[in-house]
Amino acid sequence: MPKPLLHALIWSHEQKHYKLYSHGQPEQCFPPGDEPAFSRWLDGHTAFAFEGQAGRISVLKEARSRGTGYWYAYRTQHRHTRKRYLGRTAQVTFARLEQEARVLDSSPSPASLAKAKASPLSEQKGMLLSTKLSPPRLPISLVERSRLLRELDAVRSHRLTLVSASAGSGKTTLLSAWMAASSKPQASGSRAGGLEHDVAWLSLDELDNDPIRFWASVIVALRTCLPRVGKTALAMLHSPEAPPLSTILTALLNELVQDSREIILILDDYHVISDQTIHDGLLFLLDHLPPNLCLVLATRADPELPLSRFRVRGQMVEIRSSDLRFTQEETTSFLLQSMGLPLSEEDVATLQHRTEGWIAGLQLAALSLRKRQDLSGWVSDFAGSYRYLLDYVQQDILARLPVPLQHFLLQTSILTRMNAALCQAVTAASGEPASQEMLEALERANLFVVLLDEQRQWYRYHDLFREALRARLHASQPELVPLLHQRAARWYETQGEWREAIAHALAAPDYPLAASLMEQGAPHFWFSGEARTVHIWVLALPDIVLRAHMRLALDAALRFLNFVHISTATVHASMAAQVERTITRMEEILRRKPPLLLSEAEVALIGRRLMRR
Question: What pTM does this model have?
Answer without folding.
Answer: 0.65
